[in-house]
Design goal:
This protein is mostly helical. The protein is 69% helix and 0% strand. It has two domains: 96 residues, no CATH class; 210 residues, no CATH class. The protein starts with a helix and ends with a helix. About 4% of the residues have low confidence.
Length: 384
Amino acid sequence: MAAPDWIWFTFIFALGCCIGSFLNVVIYRLPRDESLVRPPSRCPACGKGICFYDNIPLISWLLLGRKCRYCKAPISPRYFVIELLTGVVFIGLFILYFRSDFRSDVGRFLSGGWFIYVFHIILLAALIAASAIDLQFWVIPLSICWFVTVVGLVGSGLGVYVTEPVISVYKLLPRASANTASLAVGAAIGLAISWALLVTGVIKRSYEGGDSHESFQKDQGSGDEAQFKHRLEMCREIVFLLPIIVCAVAGYWIMQQGGAVRNWWLDFSQHPAVAGLLGGLWGYFVGCGIVWATRILGTLGFGKEAMGLGDVHLMGAAGAVIGPLFVVVSFFIAPFFGLAWAGMQMFFKKTRQIPYGPFLSLGILTVMILHEWIWSYANAMFAR
């Protein structure tokens, strides 16, 4: 890179802090169903608009003494923490990808590596916002997950035009084989059928009538949990999933029959852009599927809701970005963070429970850091 490192580091850290400032808006407004655009930033206590010089990331919070300029109401430390955390994540990922040998697979920044970097920081920024909301309200807004899913699908399709062939060699972006592409298309058709049945009322929505605030109260032990028969609710979700499973299997079976259809599909599905798009789609279904299976089996086994649908969509969104293999690995890494938290709680003799979203996010971050090692290990294992 032509510019000195300190210029890159300063710019990227500042950019991360600015994105963190926007994430604070998302964290505050999204659970309250408020617009992210209007009105402009204001004090939650007195409603006064915040001037631009009082809205500088990190600096303004310190200069104002953690209080509103007008009403002197305290400003939550969360604003400073989220801005600092996002800045650190942005600069840390940049150094990891482009200033160390730990992720040599990404390549040079100006030679296409920037695309992978931007792709990943969008996911990480979304994980920060989702985790902060989950910690406070025990709910993950689906709009965050859907945004990341769309970014994942579009990026997986377009990435081949920016940084090929590196992404294929190291699986930096999802890419489907002809088999997994047929499964992804079949599952997508099944999902469309399931949604149509849900909208028309042919099948019933699980936990109907429970919004995010009710879910929050339920998780806090308010007693509302008794109104749901959890095993029955899981049966409704199984009915919703049946068309997806059946159509995915049917798509795979049709592709295996050979003949002109198979030959056409092999040519079409392995076009780089199509393979990338369907790879992201398959990663989405795998991410959703592994958490949804855990949710259903856990609820049927224990008679109490296990994991939330927000976790399902969060891992689906991650799968659309990092691919099916890595989202599965991240799911199995997440419990270790949960165990570490439980150990700390036992050591300090505290009993505060936290939702699972932050653990899943840490699992995803770990996989992104260890991507090259995981891919090398998987290659060696499957080559035996």
